[in-house]
Specification:
- The complex is a heterodimer of chains A (118) and B (357).
- With 118 residues, chain A is mainly α.
- Chain A has three helices and no strands.
- In chain B, the strands form two sheets. Chain B has an eight-stranded mixed β-sheet, with helices on both faces.
- The longest helix of chain B has 39 residues.
- Chain B starts with a strand and ends with a strand.
- Classes of the chains: A mainly alpha (118), B alpha/beta (357).
- At the A-B interface, helix 1, helix 2 and helix 3 of A face helix 1, helix 3 and helix 4 of B.
Chain lengths: 118, 357
Amino acid sequence: MSDKKAEIPEELGIEIGGPGRAYFDDVILDNLFDAVLEVSAALWTVRDRQIILEKVMADKGIDVSAEIEAYVPDEMLLQARTAERDEMVARIFKGFMRRPTASTPKTADDPSLREITD
Amino acid sequence: MSRGNLGILPRPSTLADESYLQYVQSFRKLLIQDMFPAVAEPGTEKYQAWKIENGVDANTDNLDDIKSVFRDMPLARVWQRGVRSQQEMMWRRTRQSFIREADKLAQELVDAETKGPGKLIYDSDFVTPNYARQEIHLQPGGYTDDPLGGIVFHYGTNVFYEGYNDQDEHHTELAGLIAKPEGRLEKILDIGCSIGQASMVLKRNNPDADVIGLDVALPMLRYAHKCASERDIDVTFMQGLAEDTGYEADSFDAVFSYILFHELPLDIIPKVVAEMHRILRPGGTFTIFEFPNNYGVQLPPAQRFLIDYDSKNNCEPYSIDFVESNFLGMLKEVGFELAEGPETSNPFLQSIIATKR
């Protein structure tokens, strides 16, 4: 047994450090992907705080910053936030599934004619 | 500032961290539940067509061929990028969040060591084998080398489970399915117990049994013991090796293991299997929930693509060897009688009940 606290390094991690991995032929695409992820996560973070802020103000109306940090969401709010969050993720990333290969979408030269069969 | 727990799950130290990590969790959910099927289905069709075109035997699946077909799909690369990125984001922010409370968390671990009702047993001179010191799942410092590893693992894996294990629901399900041995059930061993999630459920479900959680990683065990003490659950957490436990022969009635074996080097696995047979009494059961094996069967090509990706990009260095191994043969060879285990809510896992005769 030990009564001494272990020393905890501030920075740690070989796999999450360094230049990381590239999955596309052009590493700019990897970088853009990560940038989009971070931006969208940041946007959600702001939105989430706003949700909580409004709820807390509606509930109490006093000392909102402490109330926000300490706020424990009920199950209904947890579910509502999860649903909105999932929708946001889907909105941002569905384009990748919409255009899974270069051959499926129309190009700028394709006419906008719907095939009508009677 | 400590924001306490949500049930048994510790909360990140700021709302911003929590929001960010929940976002990553939603993104992971999209990748696994929506994007991977969108890779798997067309990828499988394309692979089957490739086999016909190239005159490859319908019953033969070569991993390199599978990968070369799947890799050509642009969506596969997006999926690979996404899975790696979310995993890195998750660990970075999780650790960053709990580092803010490092002193407090470290002191809590020290204070918990002398608290009951259970016990924490370890030897300061224990030498962790190098094979156990990988950064499994990209976790900074792995399971063994970060004193904060327990709480980081707890919240990080909550994200991994896409929010479906916030209150240990998955561990509750699996530990509840432990095979009852013939006769008494007085002593249960949870090998590779990690932060003790299954161990605590085993004790709750079997209050009259002695439950021991064994793991090689001290940070996991120290956190497990702290959590068990806070919840007033009497489990003995012990640091040791599953391949050389030091327990007496025939001394356990049941052993439980959840996703341990694919994280062991291939040469260690038969030693663990032999050791479990030795320490179980006749009639005792070994319940195993684990990655599937490709030996003697043909796993779907998409699953093999997934496992290979996971091995190389999620730091699971031993999983491919495990999946390709004759794991059931190893169990039979030491004298276990095997039966298929119960179905679970995770169809990816195989479930085995091995009984010592």
